[in-house]
Amino acid sequence: MALTGLVREKLSIKLTETFRTAVAEKRAKLEYYHVEYNDTWELIERVGKNTTEWLNSGFDNLTDIGKIFIRIGSVLTILVVQVWWAALLIVTFSIPLFWLAIRSGKANYKASIEAKKHTRRADYLQDLLSGRENVEERALFDYSAEINKRYKEKYFKAYNIDFITQRHYFVKMRGSGIITTVVSIFIAGVLISPLASGEITIGMFTSIISAAFGLVRMMSLELINTTSNLAKSHEYMHDLSAFSNLSETLGAFDLPSDNVQEPKCIEFSNVSFAYPGTDLVILKNLNLKLFAKKHYAFVGVNGAGKSTLIKLLVGLYDNYTGDILIDGKNLRDFSQGELKALFSIVYQDFAKYQISIKDSIGIGNIQGVSIQKIMDVINILGLNDVISKLPEGLNTPLGRIKDRGVDLSGGEWQRVAIARSLISRSTVHILDEPTAALDPVAESEIYELFDKISKDKSTIFITHRLGAARIADEIFVIADGHVTEHGTHEELLNKGGIYAEMFESQRGWYA
Ligand SMILES: Nc1ncnc2c1ncn2[C@@H]1O[C@H](COP(=O)(O)OP(=O)(O)OP(=O)(O)O)[C@@H](O)[C@H]1O
């Protein structure tokens, strides 16, 4: 490898590593709503996916363009000295082509973004057709032919966008090639007369013509092509800059603070909220109060706003009106470290980490947790039976990424997620219905267990199964974005409202 190649390789590795790390860090620090908002999510995906390739090609294009300019400069000098007007003519004709190349490069990049939207959908459909996750449903519902049809539609949409863009590019570039060749032929034609009259020698004529054609080739092919690619890289850098300007969560990497006390009172006061970029108000003047060491259940129909309420409580959004107060202090004034120390949460779609079961639980307390503590939660959650069957016990990798990996059942994965939350140091434990894979009785058992081990802690859980809600000290019924009923299980049954109606319809599940 030539020395320049070696230097290029070294620089490229350094640049790529620096940017890759910076992009990963930035992603981790982004304010949560960027992830849920489609436009910013697409930008995040775009910038994060092929960082290495884009940076490498941008770097290559820059060095290529430098080299081409040096070569053009030397040929141009020869031509200027010999026939200045020929050099001027070529340069003049090349300027609009240069501009065309920049526009083509930008258009190519924009088209690739448009095509990507269809490709992403096509990739998803491809996954449905061949992925592991839905192999059973694929056989059961026999939807492969229909999905395949949709896949082809999406694939060809993306293909057509790419093809049309490439065709435009090709036509433009061919056109520029023809124009500049005509210019060179014109120069040759004009020089024939001085050659015939002996004003210039045949040697001089050949050297001028070869310089002119060389210049035209460099201007119309190499320079235009590289400029177009550079314009694409420039568009990527533009995206990268928009990405780096996205707002960040202050103190995103802060560890849970040590000095946070369990809150005595959490209060929602007239809280209203619409997701960023939408007009639909999800929470409407919601009011409620939660007290220390009590266990609360939020119930209500799908879409009532229960999970949204939790997202606000743990600080994922702060663009609500009204106030959320923790012992009288506004939630917006809490640091990330304090919020992390306050709340731990198990989401409906909790993560299934494909690492050892020990680490999968241990990351719930990244500051360090003893094996004894991990074993305690394992015992409490009845996971010891599962672990005793694993070939490498606590060190067995979960999932199927590794050859030695072992998959768990839906309910077992949920217990691992709950265990992770239980070993965290936070003072308020929240379960946002992570128990959907369990049957109603097993779900009730998990909540009873959770209730028992969280005796001295504040807990909140969301559930649709009211047999589980029974154990809560107080139940909040959320409907249409606000609290419509609250009280103990018995109080709500006696009230004969929505809760009583819902419980009646579910009674058979627990018989
Ligand atoms: N990121 C989002 N952007 C826009 N709207 C959203 C977003 N997330 C949720 N919603 C909407 O907010 C409403 C309330 O959703 P939420 O998840 O809080 O309901 P829920 O009571 O927890 O429902 P479920 O019991 O089905 O989980 C729904 O209409 C939902 O479509």
What is the topology?
Elements: H1 3-29, H2 32-36, H3 38-49, H4 51-82, H5 84-130, H6 135-141, H7 144-196, H8 202-244, E1 265-274, E2 281-291, E3 295-299, H9 306-313, E4 321-326, E5 329-330, H10 336-342, E6 343-346, H11 357-362, H12 371-380, H13 384-389, H14 410-422, E7 428-432, H15 440-453, E8 458-462, H16 466-469, E9 474-479, E10 482-487, H17 489-495, H18 498-506
Parallel strand pairs: 3-8, 3-9, 6-7, 7-8
Antiparallel strand pairs: 1-2, 1-4, 4-5, 9-10
Helix pairs in contact: 1-4, 3-8, 4-5, 4-8, 5-7, 5-8, 7-8, 17-18
Bound molecules: adenosine-5'-triphosphate.
How would you describe the overall organization of this protein?
This protein is elongated. The strands form two sheets. It has a six-stranded mixed sheet, with helices on both faces. It has helices at 3-29, 32-36, 38-49, 51-82, 84-130, 135-141, 144-196, 202-244, 306-313, 336-342, 357-362, 371-380, 384-389, 410-422, 440-453, 466-469, 489-495, 498-506; strands at residues 265-274, 281-291, 295-299, 321-326, 329-330, 343-346, 428-432, 458-462, 474-479, 482-487. Helix 7 (144-196) runs antiparallel to helix 8 (202-244). It has two domains: 3-244, ABC transporter type 1, transmembrane domain (ABC transporter transmembrane region fold, Up-down Bundle); 265-510, P-loop containing nucleotide triphosphate hydrolases (Rossmann fold). By secondary structure, it is an alpha/beta fold. The chain is 61% helix and 12% strand. The structure holds adenosine-5'-triphosphate. Residues 36, 275, 278, 282, 300, 302-308 line the site of adenosine-5'-triphosphate (ATP).
